[in-house]
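Example A, followed by Example B.
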Amino acid sequence: AMRALTAPDVVVPPVVTEVTPMRREVLYGIAIGETAKQSARRLCVAEGTVKTHRRLLFKQLGVVSSGEAVAVGIGLGLIIARRTPSAAESGDRLRAVIAPSEAGVWP
């Protein structure tokens, strides 16, 4: 038999509040298919800095691949996936726009 969840049963995982803005930006870069070099240029940091944040983000999220990181990031609300109009019309789920939030800024 299933029981109803109570307030103590429903918590926001601490990982969500602990992900730094830089790591969210790195996750965004991963989601849109940027290389570490491209993310570094966009963020005005060294490529090594992006790689370090990527490694630490993967450890923090408990993942080992970019796909897992994006899936977990979406699940935790760190990034939001939205279909483009052309993708929605064609039913092509692969052409998705990954946005930091609906307002276009990180929450």
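Example B, a separate protein, is given below in the same form.
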Amino acid sequence: NWTDLTDGGATTLHSHAGGSGWSPTITAQTTTYTAVNGDVVICTSGTFTVTLPAPTSGHIVAVKNVGSGRITVDGAGANTIDDGLTVILGRYDAVMLIADGTEWWII
């Protein structure tokens, strides 16, 4: 089953639920948010931080900034993202990450 998600006509996302593989949960955010495994976080406005969950092996999180602010993607606590603590997303930037059980890797 395919679902169309629209934020005021500016962005349309298509999500496929079911079957094997990654089944994302799409969430729109405008303020500081702690992601959960499987999230696709759409940052629609503002400047804030999206904190990743603890890196569970094989889990995926994606973050997209469609607003004009800057989004900081932060590894939980001392957990890193490609050996760094944060990733900064400008307008229309996105990052998809997969965990190896110890840290997050940009894919």
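On Example B: The radius of gyration is 13 Å.
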